[in-house]
Amino acid sequence: MAYQTINPYTNELIKEYPNASDQELENTLTVAHSLYKETKQQPIQKRAEILHAIAAKIREKADELARACTIDMGKLLTESQGEVELCAIIADWFADHGEELLAPDALETVATGTAEIRHHALGVLVMVEPWNFPYYQIMRVFAPNFMVGNPMILKHASNTPTSAQMMADVILEAGAPKGALTNLFLSYDQVEHAISDPRVQGVALTGSERGGASVAQAAGKNLKKSTMELGGMDPFIVLGDANMKDVNDLAWRMRIYNSGQVCTSSKRFIVMDNVYDEFIEKLKEAFSKVKPGDPLDPKTTFAPMNRKSAKEKLQKQVDEAIAHGAKVVYGNEPIDLPGQFFMPTILTEISKDNPAYTTEMFGPVAHVYKVHSEEEAIELANDSMYGLGGTVFAGDPDHGAEVAAQIETGMVFVNNFMVSLPDLPFGGVKNSGYGREMSKLGQLAFVNEQLIVKADKPNMDNLAGALVATQSIE
Ligand code: NAP
Predict the structure, then answer these.
(1) Which of 35, 52, 189, 212 could in theory staple to 228 by disulfide, Cβ–Cβ 3.0 to 4.6 A?
(2) Ligand 1 pocket test target in 206, 268, 317, 419 with most atoms within 8 Å of CB
(3) Over the stretch 186-209, which tens digit does the pLDDT of each residue have?
(4) pTM for this structure?
């Protein structure tokens, strides 16, 4: 597989990167494993200082990083700038909170003595990351695991190699030891080989169900811990008494931010009948106002998709949806620019037997459903094999939270847009994967939760739960 940066706005090949050799992978595993052993002897405060320095270096290089990201995968420069700043925020947060989150947890026990759980590093991790947020996806795994002391090998997407290498370089330049994060241009076979290596103790993947299933299978076969952040078809439920000004202001952004290529984009708008017509009109109006163009130009408000094959796949999905009876209420027309643009599109009348009902469209296409009751809205929201995120707009936020609690996903936001911040756990259920990144849950994703029970001497009165022979030896 070729690692190439092809600018999706100009279609120009900017740079090609050679694949890593098996020897490079072996050398990296050796360096990373030695670092794991060394790090165990070092105080966590040292890593916190380095992580703060990484945040500072990211901010210092923000312009360079943001430009590279936009050229790699096409998002608006302002979106790249936001992503770069978010990485610095994540690094600072784990530097500030990692020590406290990793402190031993005392346990109450009837056993003699005291009991606690200590959180130790596990060893080298492999991370497999996608192109849609080339820096943020790295930082979500890197920052907590750097604090733990797990060295990491990064296999990034084949179409964002420049961003991958730049972030790895910035991390090293800021003072992280060699081996803390090594970016390698690996083949799928090499990823599997790395997972099977005894020095590797875990794998974190963000990507499609297909990629996730394959990497999770390799992890399972080798009994390695894994976390999977996969696709989503997040519902956006609009109840009949929702504040429609807020809804209309946010719904379009939540579909076309990052050109619709976000796992937690609202992909299914489920709207109560009394506000449905207004919702459709305002969504059409907002979609019609976007300005496609060069994503590096600050006047552009709508970016190309990340690559030609992604646009072609989306067009095929939309064509198939229409062939199965979906109605195009807006969009699905060519945009007369050389880049990989897909016009913001609204599809309605998607029946249960339409492939669009169950297929994630990873681009700026909104599916809108009309419902007649809250129960119908919840049932439709849950009629999906995905379970990543979701949004509920309700007149009463407490009632909105009750509806949210009935949605089978890992995250739901009420009367607000979906955000991803280091203090909030991120992840899903069902085919959207398992495990959580960020927050305390992400901090503890790859640790050895080691139980230590300490007593002055054995207490023979306390044998009820003892896994030892209870008869006396005389
Ligand atoms: P993808 O094809 O699965 O690619 C993601 C990463 O996995 C890339 O680095 C890819 O490498 C690698 N990969 C794929 N198959 C692999 C295999 N068999 N062995 C080793 N590595 C493998 O995903 P995508 O379609 O580009 O990304 C979009 C998907 O990711 C969407 O479904 C989206 O919803 C999901 N996503 C989820 C989250 C989340 O946090 N839940 C966040 C963002 C995106 P190559 O590029 O070399 O193929």
Answers:
(1) 212
(2) 206
(3) 999 999 999 999 999 999 999 999
(4) 0.97
